[in-house]
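Thread: Newbie trying to understand structure tokens

Hi all, I'm a second-year student working on a class project, and my supervisor (Dr. K.) asked me to get a predicted structure for one chain before our next meeting. I've only ever worked with sequences, so writing a 3D structure as a token string is new to me. If someone could post the tokens and maybe explain what I'm looking at, I'd be very grateful. Here's the chain:
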Amino acid sequence: MAKDFKAEGWLGQIHCNRSADLRYRGQGYELAIPVTRNLLGDFHREHQRRYGYAHVARDIELVTLRLRAVVKNTEAGKAQMGAAASRYPSRAQIGSLSSPEVSVLFDGKTLATKLLSRDNLRPGKLYSGPAIITEYSATTVIPPSRRFRLDQAGNLVTL
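---
Reply by user tm_fold:
Sure, no problem. This is what the structure looks like when written as tokens:
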């Protein structure tokens, strides 16, 4: 993980927060509990505190494990982030002069919607919706009335 942050230009110490969403078997809601050596005991105590009861003998379901890594960036790091973003220029696709379009339903109307790879977006360029932006870990839908751009750090910003 540290190598990934460094490769993206992030400087500073990485702080990791680990949590687990737990519930008693059959419940329709979970509690987010920080991961410790006494995770199950912490869950029972938090359930007692929040809902007024705990079922110590009941099975517990693990719904989600979560790792959140946070890096506080410095001014020097911000400058480096801008430089890192410029290392990923737009990559043209051979034989593709324009983005493919798909039909998407927005507020009851079917609209031609551009299908864009996030790798092909250029920092600073202004784009207009409707659009669907795909990448390895997410798909982002931009409605027809919105505009968007990548900032110099590579973040997707809607306007």
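A couple of things are worth pointing out once you decode it. The two ends are 31 Å apart (CA to CA). The beta strands are 14-24, 31-34, 60-71, 101-106, 109-117, 127-128, 131-134, 139-142, 147-150, 156-158. Feel free to ask follow-ups in this thread.
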